[in-house]
Design brief:
322 residues, TIM Barrel, 8-stranded parallel beta barrel, 13% strand
Length: 322
């Protein structure tokens, strides 16, 4: 069944080719706010933003600041992060920022916590990040601050908002031990054993499925719209170049190596796309196999109008598909 499965969006504030280059970053953030307003009007469950640093193709570098802007232009949708990368921050400062948002927007703030480091060594040095060692302890410390168990009191004092772990590998075990719901995607979706262990260790656990998904008139159109995202990802892996999202025409004309073509094919194979019937069946299969209770769609399209149409079609599908 798909009816009743909560649908949320993850928006990474991607820059796009076209338009004045000196306005791309600001335009990407404004596009995120417009998408959030549309998601609010569609009645979607959550709108989450991400954290990336010094990446030309992604300008969502300050997730709690972006959350504040999103919450300010919406009225009912829950606003969260996927996620705040805890190795880059003091757990106490993150708790203060989240508590401030929760005080200003009561009942609407979520926080997803991840452990990824900066994209390159210079970025990691700029962030003062030393590594992911001790992540579980830092996450437990953050929970203590949010729940009022620290040696000093986080201000403002508010009820602790929900916290998710962005889980990869051993992250599922950490989440189970700390009693946290998880956001899972990528290779974990092909590893039912890991998800089963999480459920055994934490029977009350909640799984949110992070997925690139697109509903379109046909497989052909869907693949065309998704190609820029796949090409950008392939180029970033082989060339270390994660630039603005190309248009479908630019992506089609991009000359790729054999390895890059394989990465593009792999990215598209991991994406759920097609017409309503195709997408509905694949989503049912994934939800059944993973035991997930919520869908967090992460697709970004070059054309904002096409992206708005895709969000609306996916929302309609989850409302009507049994």
């Amino acid at each position: 069944m798909l009816t009743g499965v909560p649908l949320s969006l993850l928006d990474r504030s991607r820059t796009r080719t076209g338009g004045p280059p000196d306005r791309r970053d600001a335009d990407a953030l404004r596009a995120t706010l417009r998408r959030a307003r549309r998601a609010d009007e569609l009645g979607l469950h959550r709108f989450w933003v991400a954290e990336h640093h010094a990446v030309p193709g992604v300008v969502g570098s300050a997730p709690t600041v972006t959350m504040a802007a999103v919450a300010g232009v919406t009225s009912r949708i829950r606003v969260g992060t996927a996620g705040v990368m805890l190795p880059n921050h003091s757990p106490f400062v993150v708790a203060e920022q989240i508590a401030t948002l929760a005080a200003l927007h009561p009942g609407r703030i979520d926080v997803g916590i991840g452990r990824s480091l900066g994209f390159t060594a210079p970025v990691r040095r700029a962030l003062g990040t030393t590594g992911t060692d001790g992540f579980a302890d830092r996450l437990a410390e953050l929970l203590d601050w949010l729940h009022g168990r620290g040696p000093v009191t986080v201000r403002p004092q508010v009820p602790a908002p929900p916290v998710w772990s962005l889980a990869t590998g051993s992250g599922l075990e950490v989440a189970a031990r700390l009693g946290l719901p998880v956001v899972v995607g990528g290779p974990l979706l092909r590893d039912p054993t890991a998800l089963q262990r999480y459920r055994e260790q934490f029977p009350q656990g909640r799984i949110t499925l992070l997925l690139d998904v697109l509903v379109a008139d046909s497989d052909t159109r869907a693949r065309r719209e998704l190609l820029p995202q796949a090409v950008a990802l392939a180029r970033s892996r082989s060339r270390g170049d994660f630039g603005p999202l190309p248009s479908p025409q630019e992506a089609q004309a991009t000359v790729l190596t054999a390895r890059e073509r394989a990465d593009v094919d792999r990215a598209l194979a991991d994406t759920v796309f097609g017409d309503e019937a195709t997408v509905a069946q694949r989503l049912r299969d994934l939800l059944d196999r993973t035991g997930a209770q919520e869908l967090l769609a992460a697709t970004t399209l070059h054309d904002e109008g096409a992206e708005a149409e895709a969000d609306a079609r996916l929302s309609g599908l989850l409302r009507t598909a049994g």
